[in-house]
Design goal:
Layout (H helix, E strand, L loop, with lengths): L3 E6 L26 H10 L5 E9 L6 E5 L2 E7 L13 H14 L3 E5 L4 H7 L5 E4 L4 H4 L8 H17 L2 E4 L2 H10 L4 E4 L19 E5 L8 H10 L6 E5 L5 H10 L6 E5 L3 H8 L4 E4 L8 H9 L3 E4 L14 E4 L4 H12 L2 H18 L2 H16 L2
Parallel strand pairs: 1-2, 1-5, 2-4, 5-6, 6-7, 7-8, 9-10, 9-12, 10-11, 12-13, 13-14
Antiparallel strand pairs: 3-4
Helix pairs in contact: 1-13, 3-5, 7-11, 10-12
């Protein structure tokens, strides 16, 4: 069987690969987005003899191009200079120009970009090579909740998304929701439904359900609807139930004010950013996770909660219903229906045995569905299909 070369173009934390002296001082101890779906996929791909790959990523953490290796996987980090504030107004031109020569030098058979909404998807789709792009956040669905962006920024994000979908040789969707959207945009495009690969560390969690606590993990913005988690807590009958909000974001101050306004500030703990090990520690004690997003394509934290053995309360939004078996490994509620969410919180809070039963059901589901080697197999099959091999 022919060995194929794949260029993966994706966000990846340079601090996980490069030694501190190769990073700018201010980035040496700064937390970066862990891109767990990329890391779990590469950890499986690196074990295969039929694939050679390299990850190309943009980073502000260094001043010059840096190559590195982590657990056998090879990376090229390209310095990012353009200011954050100009966003999409530069049409991703700096990244598109920077990446081209490095990808060309690697000479891949196919380029796999992560994010139809990002520079990575655009870069992957314009190399003059077969390409697939992984669908992350769907801008056409998220735009109504982007209060932080101007009309022009929203339009540009959707413009690039359409361009990527129309250019890519194939698309990877994690859920049926994403598949349906992709085919509505371009009916003839090849779409493979492949869930993200879960980090196996979450299967090591020994869930005790000992603390009457609900976790809410995500960016504090309108999309993730942390306000609904706080309102749901305030509407619960069990006043002993607590909520831990893990994450940061533009609405942090507003969320703290809401907790005070509703009289639940003593029951809500704002933890800020926590690393993976700290999140795992919290999951080992809590009884449930609530993800009450107003829109979400395929939240990675939901799969991680299932792997850790936690039942999940989620909304009927985006791809979340594709990831929760209602009444079996969690519960579904309508968007912004905090009264229903409160009822589900009360139900799980008062019944740790049910938490354990539902949690184990979810764990067994994702143990097969999101197992990294299986996900790598599905990706390689899709690569070969696109290449006609």
């Amino acid at each position: 069987m022919k060995r194929i070369k794949i260029a993966l173009v994706a966000s990846y934390p340079a601090s996980l690969v490069l030694l501190p002296d190769r990073l700018k001082p201010k980035y040496r101890n700064r937390p970066e987005h862990a891109a767990p779906w990329v890391r779990s996929l590469t950890s499986a791909l690196v074990k295969r003899d039929d694939v050679e790959f390299r990850v190309f990523s943009h980073s502000r953490a260094m001043s010059s191009v840096q190559n590195g290796e982590e657990n056998g996987a090879k990376y090229t980090f390209i310095p990012k200079y353009e200011p954050v504030r100009i966003g999409n107004y530069h049409f991703h031109l700096p990244a598109r120009l920077q990446f081209r020569k490095h990808i060309k030098a690697f000479a891949p058979d196919l380029v796999h970009g992560f994010g139809t909404e990002s520079a990575y998807g655009l870069i992957a789709s314009e190399q003059g090579l077969p390409s697939i792009v992984f669908i992350q956040g769907i801008q056409a669905k998220l735009a109504p909740y982007y209060d932080q962006f101007s009309f022009a920024q929203k339009w540009l994000r959707q413009h690039f998304e359409r361009k990527v979908v129309n250019r890519a040789s194939g698309l990877v969707a994690e859920t049926k929701f994403a598949e349906d959207w992709a085919q509505s945009m371009r009916p003839e495009v090849q779409v493979a439904v492949i869930p993200h690969a879960v980090n196996p560390e979450f299967f090591k969690v020994n869930a005790q359900y000992a603390v009457d606590e609900c976790l809410c993990i995500g960016t504090l913005n309108r999309t993730k609807a942390v306000d609904m988690a706080i309102r749901s807590l305030a509407a619960t009958k069990n006043r002993g139930l607590k909520l831990s909000v893990i994450g940061s974001g533009p609405l942090a101050g507003e969320m703290k004010g809401l907790a005070e306004e509703l009289g639940v500030s003593e029951r809500v703990k704002f933890c800020g950013h926590l690393n993976r090990d700290q999140i795992i520690e919290r999951m080992s004690k809590a009884r449930m996770l609530a993800i009450l997003s107003r829109m979400d394509t395929s939240p990675n934290i939901l799969t991680e909660a299932h792997a850790a053995g936690l039942p999940v309360i989620g909304t009927r939004a985006g791809g979340i219903p594709d990831m929760i078996d209602d009444g079996k490994d969690g519960f579904l509620v309508d968007v912004d229906d905090f009264h229903s969410a409160a009822g589900k919180m009360d139900h799980l809070s008062g019944n740790p045995d049910l938490c354990r039963q539902m949690g184990q059901t979810g764990r067994e589901k994702v143990r097969w569905l999101n197992e990294p080697d299986r996900i790598a197999d599905l990706h390689v099959d899709f690569y070969r299909n696109i290449l006609g091999l």
